[in-house]
Design goal:
The chain is mainly alpha-helical. Helix content is about 75%, strand content about 0%. It is elongated and about 55 Å long.
Length: about 200
């Protein structure tokens, strides 16, 4: 047990720099953006915040991990809320114009997809810590919820795009489907050493 803790501490302390917090969406800039871009940027921000929390548990000392796990759980809730709000906003909005669809596909959707892919890698990196804390089932539940929310967000976006651009959100939808499915499968493997501690 002592060796395991020392190994985790050595791994965390020796290879990762302190995470940089993402920048919150600019209110003034949002005023000139379409509702689709605002919704996408908000989800991107929350996913990037989640990535910071995932990095933090890697750097945390064993006695700090319960607090780090609670922060991850809370931030997943923010991601789910942003995606649900975004899907509802897009569902009730006017269909996007060709210009709005093009703008959305050029940067915002790509940024969200990139953040999602980065998040998947971080979930894989913390797997051993999660298993040590007995948090396997909780994480599977969170990943399943994020997969569902992400797919709904992508579907609503595509539904509101003009003819010929209905797949503008497909890159994000595909990324969510692929990464969350893979992560759920990874975390569904039985732990080598069952324990308890994850909130």
């Amino acid at each position: 047990m002592l060796f395991t803790r020392l190994a985790v501490l050595s791994f965390a302390a020796g290879t990762f720099a302190a995470p940089i917090a993402p920048i919150a969406p600019n209110v003034e800039a949002a005023a000139s953006q379409s509702i689709y871009e605002v919704a996408t940027n908000r989800v991107t921000y929350e996913v990037e915040q989640l990535n910071v929390k995932l990095d933090a548990i890697i750097l945390a000392r064993p006695e700090q991990r319960n607090a780090a796990a609670a922060a991850i759980k809370e931030q997943v809730g923010h991601v789910l809320h942003a995606e649900a709000d975004g899907a509802n906003s897009m569902r009730g909005a006017k269909p996007a114009t060709v210009l709005e669809a093009s703008t959305l596909g050029l940067l915002p959707v790509n940024q969200l997809t990139t953040a999602t892919m980065a998040s998947a890698g971080k979930w894989t990196r913390i797997k051993d810590i999660v298993y040590q804390m007995g948090g396997q089932q909780k994480v599977v539940e969170m990943l399943t919820q994020m997969k569902t929310a992400g797919m709904q967000f992508s579907a609503e976006m595509n539904h509101q795009m003009p003819y010929g651009t209905q797949t503008v959100g497909k890159a994000y939808g595909d990324a969510v489907d692929r990464t969350m499915t893979t992560l759920i499968r990874e975390y569904s493997q039985p732990p080598r050493h069952p324990s308890a501690g994850w909130l």
